[in-house]
Specification:
Elements lengths: L6 E8 L7 H15 L8 E3 L13 H4 L1 E2 L2 H14 L2 E10 L5 E8 L5 E6 L9 H4 L8 E4 L2 E5 L8 H9 L4 E6 L6 H15 L2 E6 L1 E3 L4 E3 L3 E3 L5 E4 L5 E8 L2 H8 L2 H4 L8
The structure holds 2-oxoglutaric acid.
Protein name: Nitrilase
InterPro entries: C-N_Hydrolase (IPR003010), C-N_Hydrolase_sf (IPR036526), UPF0012_CS (IPR001110)
Pfam family, one: CN_hydrolase
């Protein structure tokens, strides 16, 4: 018996961000979130992009980071409870108790409760993340209304081991907030579709638009079903990418091609 809802309406906030300006980014994102909540197909879940408070202001990230992500959590919780909507709060720069700054996803349920927190485990050296941020130390699944979901951030999707680990832990949907730039649109779309097909799971990925000194971010946020079909895809402009996902499709696809039963872990050397 299915214990989760039949479907979810999703709204991905494909925002432009102002480098190093958390208050301005919060207002900008809030306006888009409020707009998303007025849609005829009212969202059950809103998702934000990676590092949506600061962008990649890495040279000032110590000073900008949110202590234990508490102010971001409180702000997201208030919005979620007010609008009765789940929020996958992209990621923010979190100053942890150990003084290190991490790239951390916060997940808040409809009641405003924090149900998941994940810090990016693969840091992206091309953007010098490893010089300014500490890695997360664990993989994370979380339960939203009876559906187990997996957490990942941006560069993490280049590591199929992570998606597979989350799927084996029972995740049926993978969330991927990102700041993924040109010229690697082909990698973005292909990797996300591959993660969906190989793990027979939904992949929901929210990428920012706009640019900073070093990069042009292309948006193209995606909602991909467990067959690897693209249900919704953004363009390069700021906006809300909406889509409706049928949650039982994961079990149907896994039943038709029993990939998880056919695995040969006895032969894999990982
Ligand atoms: O892997 C890539 O090409 C982009 C990754 C990235 O931009 C990030 O992790 O922030």
């Amino acid at each position: 018996m299915r214990s989760y809802p039949e479907y979810w309406n999703l709204a991905l906030i494909q925002a432009d961000l102002i480098l190093g300006e958390p208050a301005l980014n919060r207002s900008r994102i809030e306006a888009l979130m409020e707009q998303a909540m007025t849609a005829a197909a009212r969202p059950d879940l809103i998702m934000l992009p990676e590092m949506w408070t600061t962008g990649y202001a890495l040279d000032r990230i110590q000073e900008l980071a949110d202590p234990e992500a508490e102010s971001s959590r409180a702000w997201l919780s208030a919005f979620a409870a007010k609008h009765n909507v789940h929020i996958v709060g992209g990621s923010v720069a979190e100053r942890s108790k150990d003084g290190q700054v991490r790239n951390t996803m916060l997940v808040i349920d409809r009641q405003g409760r924090e149900v998941g927190r994940y810090s990016k485990i693969h840091l992206f050296r091309l953007m010098q993340e490893e010089k300014h941020l500490a890695e997360g130390t664990e993989t994370v699944t979380f339960d939203l209304e009876g559906l187990l979901c997996g957490a990942s951030v941006c560069y993490d999707i280049r590591f199929p081991e992570l998606g597979r680990t989350l799927a084996l832990a029972g995740a049926k949907l993978l969330f991927v907030p990102a700041e993924w730039p040109h010229p690697r649109l082909h990698h973005w779309r292909t990797l996300l579709q591959a993660r969906a097909i190989e793990n027979q799971m939904y992949v929901v990925a929210c990428n920012r638009v706009g640019q900073d000194a070093a990069n042009r971010f292309f948006g193209h946020s995606l909602i991909i079903d467990p067959w690897g079909e693209i249900l919704s895809e953004g363009g390069e402009e700021e906006g809300i990418i909406a889509g409706c996902i049928q949650l039982a499709l994961v079990d149907e696809v896994r039943g038709r091609i029993p990939v998880f039963e056919d695995r040969r872990p006895d032969l894999y050397r990982l």
